[in-house]
What does this fold into?
Amino acid sequence: MKQSRLFNYVEEEADSAPSEMIRPKDCCKLCGLCVGRTNLVLPSGDLRSKVVFVGEAPGETEDKLGRPFVGKSGKLLDRLMKDEGLDRSKVMITNTVKCRPPNNRAPTEEEMAACRQFLESELYEKEVIVGLGKSSCRDLLGYEGKMGDIVNKDRSIVVRDREILFIPTYHPAACIYNRDSTDALRATIRRVRDEFL
It folds into this structure.
């Protein structure tokens, strides 16, 4: 049943996916995360949007439902987007890896590398990438420092042969009990709304 639900989701989203976007197969075993996987967690929202929000990895709820950012962090992201007048369906949302790491740990470099081809195909035609949190920034920027030093400071990354604007910001999980992080994420969302949509 779980594969059937995922298959229906993939088919619905696949109709609107750019032709360059590749997806892992349901039986993907490119890394060890496949062992505990319930569902692959593929991008959601407007797959043709020029804006993408990239998180680190699916959590327990995302693994069960096969959609990114639907757990506690996703609910906070939804609320902040709604408060700032940004319709979640107008952007694409994805993660650096498509399977949940055990105990919600951060994905390893090897796990992120295994999903890199899928992530690059998702990012290739975008105009702006919003990196949600440390793992996303580590994978896409190679950044290992403090998030506070780079939040909302424009960077650029090269995806294949394209240079794309990258805006690092806090992951919604970092905002649950931190007002400053929440304000910074709100500022990112407002900027995306005002400048790119």
In short: Confidence is low (pLDDT under 50) at residues 1-12. The chain has one domain: 2-13+39-196. The two ends are 37 Å apart (CA to CA).
